[in-house]
Write a structure and sequence with these properties.
It contains ten helices and eight strands. By secondary structure, it is an alpha+beta fold.
Length: 313
C-alpha cells in the first residue's frame, strides 16, 4: 500500500496542513462494492482519517502490522478517476484489508462489529490517544491487557429506559463505576468514545451532545488548577438498525463546524438526524478541548425534516 500512502507520497515541502486537508476531505473509496457491505469499514476508515488529521504523530508500525486497516487509512483516495493500473491496485489493496478483517471480525463487517472486535480494541482503542482506562491486572498478557483497556474505555450512554438522562450524568456514572475497579487506571486520552442509544420517542437534541467533562488522572495538574478535562464533539456515526442497511458518519472540525467530504456514500444525509425518533444507536467521538458551541450545527446547510425530529420532551 506504499504506492498511495500519504505519509510517503507528500513531499517535504507539503505541510501538515495539506495532509490534514486530504485526510479529512478525501474519504474511503467504495470501489463499486455495494455500500451495505463496506459502509461499516468505510466509516471506521474515515473516523481514523479524521482523528489522524488532528494528531501530531503517526500511527504505530507494529499496530499497523497487526491491523492493516490502520495503514490503509493513510491512502490518498484521490483523484477518484485514475488509470487502469492504479484502479486495480486500489481494488486489490481494499480487498486484502476486507479479507483480513472478515477472517478476524465477521462476514458482515458492520461498524458495530468492527468497533467491538478484539482486533480493533487491541490495535486502535487501546492506543495512547484513545485509552481512557488502562488494564493493570497482574498475570494478564500485554495483548489481553490492551483488549481489556479498549473495552473499558467505551462509555455507555443508554437513554432507552431513561429519556432524561444527560450525557454528563452518564459519563459521571460510568467513571464512578470504573474507579471502583482496582485493576483499571485512569488515563488522559486525546479522544473519547460514547456509545449512545437514543430513546425511541424522546431522543436527546443535538445541542445536548456537544461537550462533556472527564476527571483528570491522579497526579496530573493544569496551569489553571482544573480537575477535569473538557471534550468536544468531532464525529457522529449512526450505526445501522438492520444488517442490509448502511452505517453513516458525520465529521466535525475541532471548532464544531460540519465538514464536507468529496463524493462519499457514508456521509449522514440530513434526514438522518441524531434527534430522529425510532430509537437508534450511535458512536459519538469527542476530542480534548472546548468546542465552539456557537458554531455547532448538525448539518452543513440542509436542515433535517422537522416532522421527525423532537427538540423537547
Amino acid at each position: 500500500m506504499d504506492k498511495e500512502d500519504l505519509r510517503k507520497t507528500l513531499s517535504a515541502t507539503q505541510t501538515k496542513f495539506e495532509l490534514r486537508y486530504r485526510l479529512r476531505t478525501h474519504p474511503s473509496l467504495t470501489l463499486d462494492i455495494p455500500p451495505f457491505q463496506t459502509s461499516g469499514v468505510d466509516c471506521l476508515i474515515n473516523l481514523i482519517r479524521h482523528t489522524n488529521a488532528i494528531l501530531d504523530k503517526r500511527s504505530s508500525t507494529q499496530r499497523e502490522e497487526q491491523n492493516p486497516l490502520l495503514a490503509y487509512a493513510w491512502q490518498a483516495f484521490f483523484p477518484h478517476e485514475v488509470d487502469e493500473e492504479s484502479t486495480n491496485h486500489r481494488i486489490a489493496a481494499k480487498k486484502a484489508v476486507l479479507e483480513h478483517l472478515k477472517d478476524r471480525i465477521s462476514e458482515a463487517l458492520t461498524f458495530k462489529d468492527c468497533c467491538n472486535s478484539g482486533l480493533i480494541n487491541k490495535t486502535l482503542w487501546s492506543s495512547d490517544e484513545w485509552l481512557l482506562y488502562e488494564c493493570n491486572r497482574s498475570g494478564t498478557s500485554p495483548v489481553e491487557a490492551r483488549r481489556r483497556g479498549g473495552v473499558a474505555s467505551l462509555i455507555e450512554y443508554d437513554c432507552r429506559l431513561s429519556p432524561h438522562l444527560t450525557l454528563q450524568d452518564a459519563v459521571d456514572r460510568y467513571c464512578t463505576l470504573q474507579q471502583k475497579q482496582i485493576r483499571l487506571i485512569l488515563r488522559q486520552p486525546k479522544f473519547v468514545r460514547i456509545l449512545y442509544c437514543s430513546h425511541a420517542d424522546c431522543p436527546r437534541p443535538f445541542s445536548n451532545l456537544l461537550t462533556l467533562s472527564l476527571p483528570l488522572p491522579d497526579g496530573v495538574t493544569t496551569i489553571d488548577d482544573q480537575v477535569t478535562m473538557v471534550f468536544s464533539l468531532i464525529s457522529i456515526v449512526r450505526m445501522r438498525d438492520k444488517i442490509q442497511e448502511r452505517d453513516y458518519m458525520r465529521p466535525y472540525d475541532d471548532g464544531g463546524v460540519p465538514l464536507s467530504q468529496i463524493e462519499t456514500t457514508t456521509q449522514t444525509p440530513p434526514t438522518r438526524s441524531v434527534s430522529q425518533e425510532g430509537g437508534h444507536s450511535y458512536l459519538l467521538v469527542f476530542v480534548e478541548g472546548p468546542g465552539g458551541e456557537d458554531k455547532f450545527n448538525e448539518f452543513l446547510s440542509i436542515l433535517p425534516d422537522t416532522s421527525q425530529v423532537k427538540t423537547e420532551c
